[in-house]
Amino acid sequence: MTSHEALLELDSSEFQNLSNELKLQRLEELSKNLSADASGSITILFSGNIDGQRIGDIAADIADKNPDARIISDTEIGKFLGDRKFQETLAETVGIDLNELRKGTVPPDLLSEYNSKLYNTDPSKDKLGFWSQASKRFVQETKGRVIILIGKDADPKKIFGSIEFQELMKNKSITHINNIPIDEFKKTLNVIPNQAITPKQIELLSESSSQILKTLNALKDKTTDIYNKESKIDKNLSIAEIYNQYDKDIAEMIKAYNVIRERNNNTIQELTELIKDKTTDIHNKDNKTDNIYNKEKDNNITNHENSSNEQDVRRNKMH
Q1: Does some domain include residue 309?
Q2: Is it the case that residue 36 has pLDDT exceeding 70?
Q3: What distance in Å separates the CA atoms of residue 7 and residue 53, rounded to the nearest whole number?
């Protein structure tokens, strides 16, 4: 089943005639029948904000421009849950008008119930929310490389921290996270099985996320001649093609920075050597001048001495 087919069912008279309870039950059945997988070789998981920008928007932009990147909103279940028709239908089962929801005029108890059905991450309180279930399945379908983009403000109690992160740590098909081999990643973050993400881990991941974004932005901009010449990366390449070009290792992207730094260091060294050579030339010239001066001085002294001697001889002769 596709998300389009599932959304069409929500408009059917058969569905509309169901009670709210049965509508909710059918929504759960439809979501379970929709695929939580997506094409692409690099999975992006995200949470929070960076520099005042929603990371979800950044991830969506990356995925939109790179067919090898996969995010949950590209799955059939993601498309279904992200559609206004689904949101409207779910709101109705709780007794909420979606327009009122968007205006922020919904009573707190109804709003809490609606959000719980969408995002609940605590199975001890209620069923996992629609997005929580979808995210869990999405991570379970994930394999290979993963990029985590989270901000320092990421809430450990939300979907990434309490659902996706745990599933990611249990997934034996993951090879790298933020370019770090999975075993090394777990060791670096001191991962404990079945434990929700900690504030310290969020801090470390947010730093890694910032570096990843800087790298991707550098690849995107490519404003430096050194970068273009030395990295030999075509600015139209997708992330996957860049991985392949660098033997599927994003760390190689940093080579561009190293090239610039090395070139700068070489330039400084060249200037230093040039200054040193110039100084030596000047010194040699000064020595040469001194030698000439000293030689002339010696000659003058010798000539003066010879002249004095001649005068002494004349005096002796006269006497």
Answers
A1: no
A2: yes
A3: 30
Is the Cβ–Cβ distance between 137 and 74 less than 8 Å? no
Asked if residue 135 belongs to a domain, the reply is: yes
- Tokens 């997988």 locate to 37
Q: What is the pLDDT of residues 184-197, one digit of tens each?
A: 999 989 898 888 88
The rounded distance, in Å, linking the Cα atoms of 134 and 23 is: 19
CA distance 124 to 169: 21
Between CA 242 and CA 73 the distance in angstroms is 23
Is 205 exposed, middle or buried (CB count within 10 Å of its CB: 0-12, 13-18, 19+)?
A: buried
Residue ranges making up the domain that contains 98: 3-216
Distances (CA, A) of 223 to 118, 121, 125, 226: 43, 43, 52, 9
pLDDT tens, residue by residue, 64-82:
888 889 999 999 999 999 9
Sign of the Cα torsion 185, 190, 194, 199 reads: negative
304 belongs to a structural domain: no
Cα gap 306→300, rounded to integer Å: 10
> Which letter, b or e, does each residue of 162-183 get, where b requires 16 or more Cβ atoms within 10 Å of its Cβ?
bbbbbbbbeeeebebbbbbebe
Does any domain span residue 106? yes
Domain count along the chain: 1
